[in-house]
Design brief:
single chain, alpha+beta, five-stranded mixed sheet, 4 helices, about 15% helix
Length: about 140
């Protein structure tokens, strides 16, 4: 289903949904990249601020990570997103069923500050940092 343009067109679905209070607590703005980290891994994903969840909850409703090496589905790869499996903790077990707990994974949030680009820097300014005696 992820390799069908008809099913992936429109606004990006691989986002991290946050309540406005949670976003304000971390200084996260709508559309800003955030790093979501669990015990086992982390992903960088755009934030969507919404009051549709409770404060303190992070929701990544879609995320399959089709951008990995070896993926041969061009449309899915072009809309890769992140893989929520990179956050799923293999030690979390649902007590009642004994199954792996793939929801309710504790995570930390970190704001990814946008890179500042100095438009007055020229290519020659960057090249001046290169040792001229080491040319090949």
């Amino acid at each position: 289903m992820h390799n069908s343009y008809r099913l992936v067109k429109g606004k990006p679905r691989c986002i991290s949904m946050l309540h406005p209070e949670t976003a304000a607590q971390y200084g996260i703005k709508d559309g800003q990249d955030v790093k979501v980290t669990s015990r086992v891994g982390s992903v960088v994903i755009a934030a969507e601020i919404t009051d549709e969840l409770m404060p303190g909850v992070v929701s990544i409703p879609h995320g399959f990570g089709h951008g990995r090496k070896g993926v041969k589905q061009k449309i899915a790869q072009a809309h890769a997103g992140v893989s929520v499996n990179d956050l799923t903790d293999d030690t979390l077990i649902d007590r009642l069923s004994g199954n792996a707990a793939v929801n309710g994974v504790p995570v930390k949030l970190e704001v990814i500050e946008p890179k500042v680009i100095n438009l007055e820097t020229t290519d020659s300014d960057v090249d001046s940092d290169i040792d001229s005696g080491s040319a090949a």
